[in-house]
Design a protein that fits this description.
Number of strands of chain A: 8
Helix content of chain A: 10-25%
Oligomer: heterodimer
Shape of chain B: elongated
Helix content of chain B: over 70%
Number of helices of chain A: 1
Structural class of chain B: mainly alpha
Strand order of the largest sheet of chain A: 2-1-4-6
Order of helices and strands of chain A: HEEEEEEEE
Strand content of chain B: under 5%
Radius of gyration of chain A: 18 Å
Number of strands of chain B: 0
Largest sheet of chain B: none
Order of helices and strands of chain B: HHHHHHH
Largest sheet of chain A: 4 strands, mixed
């Protein structure tokens, strides 16, 4: 059976895309009871983190060096950020600074 | 003179209304809701005053948190009342809270710099201690509707965090 050029390119492209997608993950961090869960999370640059606030109080997830920030999340709101290589792994809630957590960035 | 003003603020805030707990316990759920909404708005007013007067980062950060959190609680309270088809009812406790707050705002607004910061921080700590005690010890045990009770419990969790945050702010501005 011969494979058309177009079909070959499509098949190859799909294969490459599937390969890249399999390497990046989406992680969930929930904010509840004035705490981030999990407190420590292993991530790789390119991964996504979905921050969801379950508290009545608004919260943020803000890098200690302010290099990344979810902005204010009200109750029930989520935002998904893509992890970058130069991210500060330590973060806190800008409205409630005693709330802290940490990412463990894999190279 | 200004130290005496600061002391008067703290004394007034820590006393809270001179009514018996029984009188407050006898309030209805919609009157409790009104009093809680009033207490939230008072702290929001204090916070706006702090943002207008203070240049200290710890004080400004605390004030911004108070506005964000108390506005969120009030929005939830209004949404719940709307859902229940009820309206918050004015009452003696709300009126006393407002009257006392006017006096405190008048006194705080005369202060500047470090004196304002100390007076604001100490007032916030005393206010949250007093209100939290009232909410936990008198209001919540006497609320009938489970959803109203649940909202008050969520609010109390937030206000206890505020109390701890206020303690840190008091130390920071000493």
């Amino acid at each position: 059976m011969s494979l058309s050029r177009r079909a070959f390119l499509i098949a190859t492209g799909v294969g490459l895309a599937t390969s890249v997608q399999a390497e990046s993950k989406t992680h969930d961090v929930t904010i509840s009871g004035f705490a981030f869960d999990p407190q420590s999370l292993d991530v790789t640059p390119g991964d996504k983190i979905r921050f969801t606030n379950l508290d009545l109080a608004p919260h943020t997830a803000t890098a200690n060096d302010f290099s990344w920030d979810t902005g204010v999340l009200n109750k029930g709101e989520s935002i998904t950020l893509t992890v970058l290589q130069d991210w500060d792994p330590s973060y806190f809630c800008a409205l409630h600074p005693h709330m802290t957590a940490r990412l463990r960035l894999r190279s | 003179m200004k130290n005496m003003i600061a002391a008067a603020i703290i004394l007034a805030a820590s006393a809270l209304p001179g009514y018996a707990s029984d009188d407050i316990a006898a309030l209805s759920d919609t009157q409790f809701a009104h009093a809680a909404y009033t207490a939230d708005n008072i702290d929001i007013r204090y916070a706006h005053l702090a943002l207008a007067i203070s240049t200290t980062p710890e004080v400004r950060e605390f004030a911004r948190t108070m506005i964000a959190d108390h506005e969120a609680v009030n929005a939830a309270a209004l949404a719940l009342l709307d859902k229940l088809g009820a309206q918050a009812d004015d009452n003696f406790l709300s009126q006393k809270l407002n009257a006392d707050a006017e006096g405190i705002i008048d006194k705080l607004s005369q202060l500047r710099g470090a004196e304002f910061d100390r007076a604001y921080a100490e007032n916030e700590l005393a206010y949250h201690q007093a209100v939290n005690g009232l909410v936990e010890g008198v209001m919540i045990p006497n609320i009938d509707h489970p959803e109203v009770k649940a909202l008050f419990e969520q609010g109390l969790e937030i206000f206890k965090v505020h109390e701890t945050h206020a303690e840190m702010m008091v130390k920071a501005v000493q």
